[in-house]
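User: Could you check the structure of this?
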Amino acid sequence: MANNTTNEVRATAKYVRVAPRKARAVVGLIRNLPVAKALEVLQFNTRAVSEDISKVLRSAVANAVDAQIGVRVSSIDVCIDELIFPKE
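Assistant: Sure, the predicted structure tokens are below.
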């Protein structure tokens, strides 16, 4: 869901079977990084949840491209502002 006034996009993953504590450890590694760097960190991370987080991140970039119709958005221009993972 895109909010065009603040140029924010959102992507969610439901029913991911992983402990929130383990996912928060990986999310902490990529918080406040540019998307290109975050995807690189996730690619070489050994935790299994890295793949799920990478899919959500790629989905958010695709949502950003869809929200900016007619404007080319590169993943270098996009920065991760906030990642939320629910508590147990």
